[in-house]
Design goal:
By secondary structure, this protein is of the alpha/beta class. The chain has helices at residues 9-25, 27-40, 60-73, 87-99, 114-121, 139-148, 165-175, 211-221, and strands at residues 49-51, 54-56, 77-81, 104-109, 129-133, 155-159, 184-187, 225-227, 243-246. The strands form two sheets. Strands 5-4-3-6-7-9-8 form a seven-stranded mixed beta sheet, with helices on both faces. The structure holds S-adenosylmethionine.
Length: 268
Amino acid sequence: MKQRGQPTDRKFEARNRRMIGRIAKDRRLARASIDWINTSAPFEYAYHFKWLGIPIIQLPPDIIALQEIIWKTKPDLIVETGVARGGSMILYASLLELIGGNGRVGGVDIDIRAPNRRAIETHKLAKRITLIEGSSTDERTARKVHALARGRKRVLVILDSNHTHEHVARELELYSPLVKKGGYLLVFDTVIERMPAGYFANRPWDHGNNPMTAVRQFLRRNGRFVEDPEMAKLLISAAPGGYLLCVSDTAKAKRNPRKRRPARQRGG
Ligand SMILES: C[S@@+](CC[C@H](N)C(=O)[O-])C[C@H]1O[C@@H](n2cnc3c(N)ncnc32)[C@H](O)[C@@H]1O
């Protein structure tokens, strides 16, 4: 029985969409969120969570968003670059197990340490996971990932390894073709662009050289993906602007808007 005051699902969803639109435009909320992220970062906040016993290096709202996307799109393969301790592998495998079918997880990392490999390979959900050791931008690694994707129709790609512009730009070239219309390509740590310059003193990435700058360049050149506006709701996220929805299977080279046409082609 419908309870008084409880909106129908459609009304509930429509109201949520309107609210999320307001969230996306609210500067005060955006400032408070990035302040919160910057204030909690020195405490290594994102390192303190586990999924089914294994550490996952993500902010909780991003973990929820990953769950929403996996449940909604029901991928038959999830590829992630950047495995670390393996919590994200177990998160994806646990959701694929609940969904049923033969969905698999492929994890790429340049350095899979022995205890981490052991924890993943002895986990109850290990049967769904393939680990590939190597740099994600190495041609041999890419060939192994593409072999894993052969015959798979709904591939979700998540980039969370080396966060320099050059590295992410190359990962986008290598792995975005795996994602088809209706699927997602997620790029983590775009938030670095909103953090103070020089924050990562011992890392090669910084303001102006990070996943966000690579995503902007990718979206200018590749017409197959758009930013998912719904994810503005996350606020406390390592991937603002990094949740990319595939809207077309055909690659349309986009005209570089900054490049001016030669004078004789210009009309008027
Ligand atoms: C932020 S952690 C990944 C966190 C993980 N996705 C999770 O949710 O728990 C980044 C990982 O990327 C790996 N990495 C760094 N450079 C890489 C590269 N060139 N290719 C593949 N993995 C790389 C590091 O070894 C590290 O384990």
